[in-house]
Specification:
This protein has helices spanning about 30-40, 65-80, 95-100, 115-125, 150-165, 185-195, 200, 220-235, 245-255, and strands spanning about 10-15, 45-50, 85-90, 105-110, 130, 175-180, 205-210, 240. The protein is of the alpha/beta class. The protein has an 8-stranded parallel β-barrel, surrounded by 7 helices. Strand 7 (about 205-210), helix 8 (about 220-235) and strand 8 (about 240) form a beta-alpha-beta unit. Helix 2 (about 65-80) packs parallel to helix 3 (about 95-100) and helix 3 (about 95-100) runs parallel beside helix 4 (about 115-125). The longest helix has 18 residues, at about 65-80.
């Protein structure tokens, strides 16, 4: 068995009033920048900045409002830390375009390429593209938790979506897959998928796992850290987390020699 590589840590920065865990904490620019600086100091490899809540039942936000929330934060971070790696958490073409123009280099698309123009942007800017599995959208997704075979259904979804991304010119090495824990999955399905992440690493594409503080973890730090360890042991390449310092400490138990 080949030696596991430590996953990159994607620190979550939600500049939203209604996100499921940290909504309202970072809606003003000074608070958002302070949080970004904190996560970078704690060891985050990437900052994932989102301007729309995607919790179950969340209502959509127009791209103009989302862009208004996100872009000042990206500008200020890049002004202070030109080397900071920025991911934009959006499924809106206009928001992604504005973010890439300001220095973001990853599009984190929770919609699973519902808008193929996001693949065009990733190709044009040579940006990484996260393709997440979902059925429906956040306001409806929990009505779509029925699967004939959840592993095959998600694998088939990824096969179709990665083929589309490649056809639009996205480099293979720039595609990242996310199984979408908490998105159109029951509590039991989330745990089943988490315990079998290695099934999806066989695709050859790097896997991003976002379990941090989600409902199926009861928003617990301890459970979120155990999820991070479980994902890392199975070869996840990226962990999307709220608690950067604590996650890195939890991973030391796996990678310490």
């Amino acid at each position: 068995m080949s030696e596991l590589k430590k996953p990159l840590i994607m620190g979550i920065l939600n500049v939203t009033p209604d996100s499921f865990f940290d909504g309202g904490k970072y809606t003003n620019l000074p608070a958002a920048i302070a949080r970004a600086e904190q996560m970078l100091a704690e060891g985050a490899d990437i900052l994932d900045i989102g301007g729309e809540s995607t919790r179950p039942g969340a209502l959509t936000v127009e791209s103009a409002e989302e862009t208004k929330r996100i872009i000042p934060v990206i500008k200020e971070i890049k002004k202070r830390r030109r080397d900071a790696v920025i991911s934009v958490d959006t499924y809106h073409y206009e928001t992604a375009l504005a973010a890439l123009d300001e220095g973001a280099s990853i599009i984190n698309d929770i919609s699973g390429l519902k808008d193929l123009r996001l693949a065009d942007l990733a190709a044009k800017y040579k940006a990484k593209l996260v393709i997440m599995h979902i059925k429906g959208m956040p306001d409806t997704m929990q009505s779509f938790c029925d699967y004939k075979d959840i592993f095959k259904d998600i694998s088939d979804f990824f096969e179709q979506k990665t083929a589309l991304a490649l056809q639009r010119g996205v480099s293979r090495e720039n595609i990242i897959l996310d199984i979408g824990l908490g998105f159109a999955k029951t509590r039991e399905q989330n745990w089943l998928l988490l315990e079998n992440i290695s099934h999806f690493t066989k695709s050859g594409f790097p896997l991003l796992i976002g379990a941090s503080r989600k409902s199926f973890t009861d928003k617990s730090l301890e459970t979120s850290l155990k999820c991070a360890q479980t994902a890392a042991r199975q070869g996840a390449a990226y962990l999307r987390v709220h608690d950067v310092k604590e996650t890195l400490a939890a991973l030391e138990a796996i990678y310490a020699k």
